[in-house]
Amino acid sequence: MAAPVTAALDIGSTSIRAIEVRRTKSRPMIERFEQVELPDGAVVGGVVKDEKAVTAALKQLRSAKAVTARSVSLAVTHQQVVVREVEVANLSSDEMRLALPHQMRDVLPLPVDEAILDFFPLEDPGSKETVRGLLTAAPREAVTNTVEAVEKAGLKVDRVDLACFAVLRAVAAVADGAEAIVDIGANTTLVVIHTAGVPQIVRTIPRGGHEVTSVLAHRLGVAVPEAEERKCHLGIHGGDAAHAEAMVEASRPLINEIRSTITYFAKTQPATALHRVTLVGGGSRLRGLTEELGKSLTVPAVVGNPLQYVGYARRGGSHDAIGNHRAAAAVSVGLTLGVAS
Fold it and tell me: Which secondary structure element, helix H or strand E, spans residue 136, and what is its range?
């Protein structure tokens, strides 16, 4: 009997990544991975704004046999996503579901009736009156709009997960102390600081690679496509002095946001040492970024490997989708590696 296949979709602001992984005795093996582009404005800030465009892209993936399973897992990311360690009354799962909206009303940045809440225990409370765990909250609109677009493409959504949990499963590598995982996308950057796989800080920054390109184009007086080509080819420190100076300025706002998140963690948890910053996402491929981050931080910045816990057949060339998009595969790969714990 063939091993079961797990399928997942990572719907970002500029593209959709589809993956299918087959479980084997040794480790999960990627069988299919494809990426299809989305038109501008189809997904904004993690919310599907153009349902028809997203559904059409998903149907394109299905017709190309990138998704053969009927059921898929989805990831959600949004600036108002909350992941917070809390201590709540030790209740049964049904009682907890009813009590959470009342207990968490004053600690959420959005109205509880507009949020989907969940709670993941971090301990076995036994007979204790309280239990320590992770509260998660996501805007209902971000979840329901995405699910509807996927289902209209003929797929069934069997699980919705937070992107921060998916990234952790794919990338987390530091067992002692803390690690900051930074997933740099086109328009948003997800920062997850964890200790032993448990998120301590989750933040979505509304900045990404496109902003760097736009600032570079403005500084050099060139069209955006040319600026994108220069950015990808020369990186931050390549080219002439004008390019290097413009790139340092263009990347500074994003670097400052990442640094401020790490500084906040250091101030609020002074007893926990941060061992390193791990970069993933399409923006992590920017040459010179780890060096620029290193100048701002007291810990090393490295580029992570989202494929470290899975295997795949290396085909090479332009048809090697997972190899060509390795950096951006963290969320989709992490979705196939299990449920959040």
Answer: strand 130-139
Same domain, yes or no: 128 and 144: no
Question: Is the separation of the CB atoms in 28 and 334 below 8 Å?
Answer: no
Domain membership flag for residue 181: no
What is the residue whose two structure tokens read 């069209």? 223
Supply the mean pLDDT for the chain.
89
pLDDT of residue 99: 86
Contact 17, 9 (CB under 8 A): yes
Task: Flag whether 70 is in a domain.
Answer: yes
Range of the domain at 334: 5-77+140-172+306-338
Residue 7, beta-bridge partner list:
20
- Whether residue 253 contacts residue 211, with contact meaning beta carbons closer than 8 Å, is answered with yes
Shared-domain flag, residues 14 and 149: yes
Pick the closest to residue 255 from 217, 215, 285, 296 (CA basis).
296
Same-domain check for residues 237 and 291: yes
> Mean pLDDT over residues 198-207, rounded?
92
- In total, how many domains does the chain have? 3
- Helix (H/G/I), strand (E/B), else coil: 83: strand
The CB density around residue 339, as the number of other CB atoms within 10 Å, is: 11
Span 182-194, mean pLDDT?
A: 95
